[in-house]
Design a protein that fits this description.
alpha/beta; eight-stranded mixed sheet; 11 helices; 22% strand; disordered C terminus
Length: 360
Amino acid sequence: MTATAVERAAMTHALDIARRGPRGLNPQVGAMILSPSGDVLAEGWHRGAGTPHAEVDALSKLTAAELSGATAVVTLEPCNHTGRTGPCAQALIDAGVARVVYALDDPGARSGGGAERMRAAGLDVVAGEQADAAEALIRDWLTVQRLGRPHVTVKWAQSLDGRAAAADGSSQWITGPAARADVHRRRAAADAIVVGTGTVLADDPALTARDGDDLLPHQPVPVVIGARETPAEAAVRRHPHAPLFYAGHDLAAILADLRDRGIQRVFVEGGPTLASAFLADGLMDEVLAYVAPVLLGGPKLALGDIGVDTIGRAQRLVVDQWLPLGPDLLAIARPAGTADDTAALALPADEYPSRNEGAV
């Protein structure tokens, strides 16, 4: 079975209203209820941990008579798990809905399986409608569910010959204004920005997301990793969010703690040492490499040891986009062979919060 034109239009709207919900440990989900003749009866979206899921939000606005034989259009497979709220799959069955069209399978070991439950109850179920758009909407949440950690972007700026700084350590500015503005826009899309203490001590960065001198509306939480003390007068301590400091170097444990704090997208901008450590540990989902038409020479490489001792162990990437930014070029890349494989890496059910249990 496939979705009808009316159901496709309803899914487009459901994806739009899903964005009204907060980003956090729970996914942004939207739902529409259609009459048997295709009229829109109600809409709903998830408003955060502990609140009704999108399907139940929409169902609550209708009577039993209105729901009989109706179609539900949902951006994520209705859940099959009782947590803070009951299973949405059963709520749809009990409401008398006859058909469900959803975009994306729920990867949760406990919350997934709603489609099978509804089919067993006799409902028509159509999966995969606008799945790519739904995946893009909640990609960060999916990374948390599938890998048990936030989505990690590792960013650096380099000269054409692969240097992050001149021989004396000076690096401002390798890239031009357009590239720097792009970095700030991407910072604003992240939940946390991560640097090492070396970068804090050398550059005293504010770690804010700015448009010129003005702060952008959304600011990432600053995270500083390293044993050295951050000075009391450091600019990062004046950030709109209180910085998080981690003295250890167990990156997986740090990411797990950030996940538990509700952080889903991490932007690593901490210099060659920290960038190399994330790459060496395999904790990278995206690379942003800003390349400037400048030659610096010398020892200040953009990356250090990432555990590649022979060409056969090279970290192969797929470049999704080459983006010109004034005289500079941004390569947006991801690990080769992983874009469609992460669903197979789902953690055991007790190692991450389900969509019913997330809280920040």
